[in-house]
Write a structure and sequence with these properties.
- The structure is a single chain.
- With 411 residues, the protein is mainly beta.
- The protein is 6% helix and 59% strand.
- The protein is built from two helices and 22 strands.
- It has helices at 2-20, 135-138, and strands at residues 27-40, 45-59, 64-75, 82-95, 99-106, 128-131, 142-152, 155-162, 191-193, 206-215, 218-228, 233-239, 242-248, 251-263, 266-283, 289-307, 310-321, 332-344, 349-358, 363-373, 378-389, 402-410.
- A hairpin with a 6-residue loop joins β3 and β4.
- 24% of the residues are buried.
């Protein structure tokens, strides 16, 4: 219901921004039409997506800015027939002398890791393509208050207050990028649903803070977030009718930080995070699947190199969890990634390659893409997504290896 209301509000704001602006050059009206399609290595259609994005923004002389952006999407091959209309942005922003405050639907990104999430926990994700599709478009926007203030020289404080809670958009069990889940082990077992967080109750809101700045030439941030899981936790219950499971979102907390040190054309960077209240499933001695609160830690170290038309990025990612006897998931995950980008033809042609190696499970994922801007409006993209190796990692999606093509028109 709240998403329908926000979508209607976005459309109203689009019209009002366009009609109420005092000066013609104060209004920015834009849009985008896009088709994305993919063929798997088996010769089947693996993606058939059509989207339209319509946006408008108004900038006033008094420090106020209004922005609305609505996306309509239709997809036919990933996970059945899926369609949605949602606001990607719908906010009012005021820029004062020391603080900039934004209220409404927006997207906030913490951290700079390339496709590996450490601090990027603010938003749930659309996971119908796993984590392998259009990463930017996979974030699900949230309604929030976002205020960032300059405290001292080169130091700032960001405060987020998020009433809205959304879950990850997961593929169906027979979807192309469906993941192995505990649900698969509990087929036929009765379930009961607990109430989701209520945006009308301040106790259910998500607070988050980030202190960032520069000290001795080092950019850094300290982050804290107290939100909700993006998937229901299944907790076993014994009733008079036998075993059942209760589906409920649990609170989740993150403490973390980041740093970036420029050294000529090289930037050395890192991110770390501690989640003291993650959860892990395990097989209890009685044979049932149970769940236990668990501590999770993450570390990412990277080096970015940019010179002329070339970009090179290397990352090392490590995730480890406290031991749980007879756990159903991996205690540790280690991934090394390499990203290469080459800009050609005065910025009209981009060639990119991204390769990730799972060091624990001996599996690989590679994404190769060519992007060509025909002119200021038309853009063509073509690329390969390749999955290989252990079935416990990227190799699980081996049959989804695909050739992806896209056409985009922007105005």
């Amino acid at each position: 219901m709240i998403n329908r209301t926000l979508s209607l509000g976005a459309l109203i704001l689009l019209v009002s921004v366009d009609s109420q602006a005092g000066a013609p050059d104060a209004v920015d009206f834009n849009g985008r039409l896009e088709i994305r399609q993919a063929v798997t290595r088996e010769g089947e259609w693996g993606l058939d997506e059509y989207s339209a994005l319509l946006g408008s923004a108004w900038q006033g002389d008094s420090g106020w800015r209004l922005k609305a952006q609505v996306r309509a999407l239709q997809e036919n091959k990933l996970d059945g027939d899926y369609h949605e209309i949602e606001p990607r942005e719908l906010f009012a922003e005021y820029q004062g002398e020391r603080c900039t405050s934004t209220v409404g639907v927006q997207q906030v990104v913490w951290g700079s890791a390339d496709r590996l999430r450490v601090l990027d926990v603010i938003h749930p994700f659309d996971r119908r393509e796993g984590y392998f599709g259009d990463y930017v478009q996979q974030r699900r926007p949230l309604a929030m208050l976002n205020s960032e203030c300059s405290m001292f020289e080169d130091q700032s404080l960001q405060v987020l207050l998020i009433p809205q809670t959304r879950k990850d958009l997961l593929p169906a069990s027979d979807g192309r990028f469906a993941e192995p889940r505990v649900n698969d082990l509990l087929t036929g077992v009765p379930r009961s649903d607990a109430a989701d967080p209520d945006w009308r109750k301040p106790a259910d809101w998500t607070p988050a803070v980030r202190w960032s700045g520069n000290a001795a030439g080092v950019d850094y941030s300290l982050n804290a977030w107290h939100g909700w899981q993006t998937e229901d936790t299944l907790t076993p219950e014994l009733t008079r009718n036998g075993l059942s499971y209760r589906e409920q979102l649990q609170r989740r907390t993150l403490f973390g930080g980041s740093f970036a040190v420029p050294v000529g054309p090289v930037v050395v960077k890192g991110e770390a995070a501690l989640t003291p209240d993650a959860y892990r499933y395990y097989r209890a001695p009685s044979g049932i699947v149970d769940v236990e609160k668990n501590r999770q830690q993450q570390l990412l170290l990277g080096v970015d190199y940019l010179t002329g038309d070339w970009f090179l990025g290397v990352q090392y990612y490590n995730l480890w969890k406290d031991d749980v006897e007879r756990a159903l998931d991996q205690d540790r995950s280690e991934i090394v990634s390499l990203a290469i980008r080459r800009e050609m033809l005065q910025g009209r042609l981009y060639l990119t390659a991204y390769v990730a190696q799972d060091l624990r499970q001996s599996a690989q994922y590679a994404a190769l893409e060519m992007r060509y801007d025909l002119d200021a409006h038309w853009q063509l993209r073509s690329g390969l997504d390749v999955f290989d190796g252990s079935q416990s990692s990227f190799g699980y999606y081996e049959e989804q290896t695909r050739w992806v093509n896209a056409v985009r028109y922007s105005f």
